[in-house]
Amino acid sequence: MAKHYDLERLGYQKEDILLMVHADDAGLSCSENAATIEALETGIVNSYSIMVPCPWFWDMAHFAKHHPQYDCGIHLTLTCEWKQYKFGPVLPYSEVPSLVDNQGFFHAKREQVKKLAKPQEVKKELQAQIVRALAAGIKPTHLDSHMYTLGLSNELLAVYRELGREYQLPIFLSDQLLREVDNPDSLQEGDNVVNAVHIGNFKAMESTGLDELYTQQLKNLKAGFNVILIHPAFDNMEMKQVCVDHPNFGSQWRQMDFDFFTDPNTASLLKERNIKPITWREIQKISL
Amino acid sequence: MAKHYDLERLGYQKEDILLMVHADDAGLSCSENAATIEALETGIVNSYSIMVPCPWFWDMAHFAKHHPQYDCGIHLTLTCEWKQYKFGPVLPYSEVPSLVDNQGFFHAKREQVKKLAKPQEVKKELQAQIVRALAAGIKPTHLDSHMYTLGLSNELLAVYRELGREYQLPIFLSDQLLREVDNPDSLQEGDNVVNAVHIGNFKAMESTGLDELYTQQLKNLKAGFNVILIHPAFDNMEMKQVCVDHPNFGSQWRQMDFDFFTDPNTASLLKERNIKPITWREIQKISL
Fold first, then answer.
1. Closest residue of chain B to A89, computed from CA coordinates
2. Using one digit for the tens of pLDDT, what is the confidence trace for B240-264?
3. Which among A27, A86, B175, B253 has most CB atoms closer than 10 A?
4. Which among B113, B105, B236, B111 is positioned nearest to A136, based on CA atoms?
5. CA distance A178 to A182
6. Which residues of B touch A31 (CB under 8 A)?
């Protein structure tokens, strides 16, 4: 019932290998912002999304407003997974009690969101995040979901779809990610999904680093709309402290993401295989 | 009517030159935390205070909890002076509307607080800041006021005094700072004030740096309870971005503070003049 995007309507061929290298988590920290901007400007990252509730949102929003040439989505946020670096809703937390811990910050784990969050509070908060992004001068190209939390249940997916319709923005859906968050068979008529999603891996990161994994992913990309999800940041003092006791998607991983996707050899690899960049701005034309 | 602290009750002599080197703004950023910690551990900084509403509060609170040997106050916060780095109340902002801008963040200027803030909302919010600090395991030694905002009016001063009484903590009062915020003659019976406050200066900072100014301050310290207020931070990527378009008390200034007060020559200067360190923990014994 769910369909892949019809990329022929954009002028692509069925056999074309299309790739979006998407930077999640812009706005999280100064390090994340700086690395994301450099990866957009000098690397092959061609899309990113911003976390509105984070301390560094305004810094990234300033960039987004003045650089509308880059695909920029809203990374709808319902979790704060860091131990000593906390953020909470855009709305007063007393208005969305099911979304927060006893200090008014987002729950750390997406399972808590699945268990506790009331869909109407989720919707209200995510509308507020979008409204704040719009007010900051961002012209969003898409919506996606931090830690894929909106894929966790059919109720959350329903909110996700409603927000897409309401703000006329494509939402990032992937059957593969839905399986990974234990919510398979939840797609429905009218959903558009990307063909494949690629992402780093903690074991590989710890043992050999991510270069080999990403190289293999690029060498094996198949025809269709591929997305590589990365989280570029510099492994500096700030980012190490944000990620303290949280090596999964931690600052080392993020530095590897930055390094690999700004390496000229990576760009060459894309050229060799005639991999074409694709953006949400293009997708917007055929999905709405 | 207001009195200087009676330091003879602590065993000091009338002619003793007592000095507290106090680091404000801990919790503001990762850079501020790291520099404050290093300045406490290796420099002559002997007291600091934490901004509870800031993104890096939890990181600093973790340090404070595990290092109770250092004087640690609560830097009561009602303003957010930074352009693209925003924070707001600990309470849901809808409960303290007079304290926030239209996005729910603190006003940027203390004059806005003076004009708009309702004393009962100020009190409620500052109680929440103290309660959060206590819950985080901090054992505060004193209260002080970010940008000396609580000195702006008699109503705000009344809240400040009430909080001190309520939580049995000395509050940092200075007739000199009250004059600087255009609220002279506002002290009253029962107030205890420090003898002198020393602070950097933007013009000096821009032209020759702060070393000479601080050196002169130390050479001219008089007998009594002296406080030098500093804001140590590293002038790194994060701090430059926090302070963007705000060179006054900006990242350069903060690096100079760190450098001077961790320089062994500064410690030698104190020794030469027999300047003795004093802390709020001591003051607590005679003020409550």
1. B92
2. 999 999 999 999 999 999 999 999 9
3. A27
4. B105
5. 6
6. 237-238
* Cβ contact, residue pair A86, B59, below 8 Å: no
Q: Determine the Cα–Cα distance for residues B176 and A223; give it in Å rounded to an integer.
A: 72
- Gap between the terminal Cα atoms of chain A: 17
Q: Could you say which DSSP state residue B179 is in?
A: H
Can you tell me the ipTM of this complex? 0.95
Residue A283, exposed/middle/buried by CB under 10 A (0-12, 13-18, 19+)?
buried
Residues of B with CB under 8 A from a CB of A: 29-31, 33-34, 55-56, 58-59, 62, 83-87, 90, 92-95, 103-104, 132, 234, 236-238, 241-242, 244
> What DSSP letter does each residue of B111-122 carry, written as one string?
HHHHHH--HHHH
In contact, A131 and B102? CB cutoff 8 Å: no
How many structural domains compose chain B?
1
B250: domain CATH number is: 3.20.20.370
Which of A74, A68, A59 shows the shortest CA–CA distance to A22? A74
CA-based radius of gyration for chain A: 18
Average pLDDT on B189-215 reads 96
Q: What is the extent of the structural domain holding B51?
A: 3-287
Beta bridge mates, A100? A106
The pTM (predicted TM-score) of the whole model is 0.96
Q: For residue B93, which amino acid is it?
A: Y
- Cβ-contact B36, B60 below 8 angstroms: yes
Q: Which chain B residues have a beta carbon less than 8 Å from that of A29?
A: 238
Continuous H helices in B106-153: 110-116, 119-135
